[in-house]
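User: Quick one: structure for sequence A, then sequence B.

Assistant: Sequence A:
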Amino acid sequence: MAIPLTYNFRSVKARWTSAIVAVVGIAGTVGVFVAMLSLAKGFRATLVSSGSPDNALIVRGGATSEMTSGVGLDSVKIIQDAPGVARGSNGPLLTAEAVLMAPIPLRSTGTDANVQVRGVSPNVLEIRKGVRIVQGRMFSPGLAEIIVGKNANTTYAGLTLGNTIGLGTMQWKVVGVFDAGGSAFDSEVWGDPHLLTAAYNRPDTFFQSVTARLTSPEALTQLKDALTTDPRLNVDVTREIDYYAKQSTRMTTLITTLGGFVAFVMAIGAVFGALNTMYSAVADRGREIATMRALGFGGPAVVFSFLIEALLISFVGGLLGCLVVLRLNGVTTSTINFQTFSNLAFAFKITPSLLVEGVFFALVMGVLGGFFPAVRAARLPVATALREL
């Protein structure tokens, strides 16, 4: 015979002060847990959304990122004629890109941050379909003009439309702001690759990567076979979306590991808080428990009833923690991308599945905090407790 659930609700209500302590402890732990995982999800989502399954990224063979890569102009000419590369009205849909780093002050602190500056071909918007100009216009090839991502526009000083900023040995005018759909490109500055490399005293016949539009997503294998077997080339060919997913691995692992450790430490405290609450409940309700046992409720029913009470407290704590941290969803922050050492803006990404994980985590803490007090309650000597009535 099971103890009615109404008994558990009335019990929690009667001991609301100690229950609140446990609820707050669990809510804080769940909040940290969900917040850290949402950071990792947001960082990964930002990088992965930078890539497209319709594009191939070509870098030097063995290079781990664009920053450690190098592709010469002769190689670019071979790549643009390779099978699998789509063609537009003005020729191959391919952009050979120079990737550099520039120190630009943050608006919030005034301190310099590493901003990724990318030299792109004039047809880049045909290749990266998710990028569109939202203010101003595209830069003109051969002129010292740049366009900036929407996050770069709001995060860094001097990158407002119509402003002039020094990059390398040249002064550049901001002529446009682009929206890259929340991808990593939103934190970048784009301009003419030949002028950018010249401004940083680099040869203008040398690029860090080549991004090519494929005739179809299935054409990647054809392009890869053609380029990797060409004795004139030493390149690696990757689907663009896979490249950016791999770039996110190190940082997401770090955030997840750190967040898991912090949440684990806090969970220990929350479990002890639940233990204290439930043990106190057992101590205060010895006669109640003995009376229920005398009325025919068995030990398993008492254990189940106390576990339900612990789960009720932890469920409320889990919901509270999720509701508090939900306000962070979409809030933009920034960090260093360890693969490129550039500053990258990204948003907290709190998904329904993450909220479910948070509540489940709370319930686990509830079980751990309620099991042993529940067993103790079931083992209370009935005769001794009844003599105290």
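Sequence B:
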Amino acid sequence: MPLREIDDIERLKKINAALISRVERSMEQQGNAFSLFQTAISLEQRVRTRTEELHSTLRRLEQSNLDLISAKESAEQANLSKTRFLAAASHDVLQPLNAAHLSVSALAEIQTSEEGRKLVRQVERSLETMGDLLHTLLDISKLDAGVTRPDICDVHLETLFSSLRSDFEPVAAMKNLKLKFRPVNAMVRSDRTLLRRILQNILSNALRYTRSGGVLVGTRNRGETMRIDVADTGCGIPDDQREAVFEEFHRGPRVADAELAGGGLGLGLAIVRRMADTLDHPVTFSSTVGRGTIFHIDVPVAATVTAHSMSALPDMQRPRGYGLFGTRVLLVENDPDVLQAMASLLERWRCTVRAASSTSEALDTLGDTAWTPDIVIADQHLDGGDLGSATIDEVRAYLGRPVPALIVTADPSETVIQAARAAGIDLMLKPLKPAQLRALLAHLLA
């Protein structure tokens, strides 16, 4: 019906309201659509901005990672360079130190006065302290740089204990202390050298901080692990120093005895912690101030070995005689001072010595068929780039028999250790301790 034919005012109002409402809804929908369109554009712009910011952040993060990798490589390289420097420096320093040690030992044997012997002992102690400090600093450097790789093998504890007993019994005797090792017939899985150093450092500390009583070393089987206990009757460790004792240059509490107060360098237990972590051998201790300390080292037990191998091991530790009279020694050493000092010491032991500084000189020495060596002692690094291990191989080939041999070197690197082991050659590190050298020579010749 046309609007002009409607004469009902109220009806017209309703129709008008409906039309206005429809128009308003239509406008709202258009407005909402436009608003949504604007919102979509705004969101797209914000997403683009955030994406660019994220890409920029990722690029900065990648660059930071590259910088960190570069810095890490530089730090590792610096650490390795430091280790190589310390190894080279220690080698150069240990050569004259070794010569001095051997010369003093030879001098000690010809001293007739008590005053002279006393002075010689003082010099020997100073030289030993210097050598121990250099070796310890080098060990810390290598462990921190991560270049020490354990050589895990079966270790016979009784043989290890026998070696430690021979080293520390004179120290205990000088202080009127008792040193006991409980017999044990067991094999463990460890690095023989590192495990020995751990026990050596703990024993050294135990004897240093004990004034009366003594030190006892024993073992307890704990299933898959063997617990090695080192118990002393020393001054003990206070509870507030339980962690501090494993820090570098931390020394035990001062005691009245001047010898105890001025003893160690404070590096022994720091080395113990690093070596134990490298081997994954937990080290703990219990202590009572004034009564003593017990250190515990937990080492994995080795797999069952044959009765033949177990019975053969104790034979290695039977006491050997020290008679070297008439022993023919081929000494290969390129350092004149060390050569002279070593030759002098061997001659004091009534050995017959022939010297060489290279492989060719050593072979020339063997041209005298009336003289053949009973043992060869060689430095590892010789003149002309020769290696002592290779020299010993050529000497053995020339003689046609595996003559006993010993490498003495100031280079403690794994390369040298592996070369000696592969050739079946014993190895000692400079500076040499004459008593240990003499015992090893007697053992090799027996």
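The longest strand covers residues 214-222. The domain at 153-317 is CATH 3.30.565.10 (Heat Shock Protein 90).

User: Thanks, that's what I needed.
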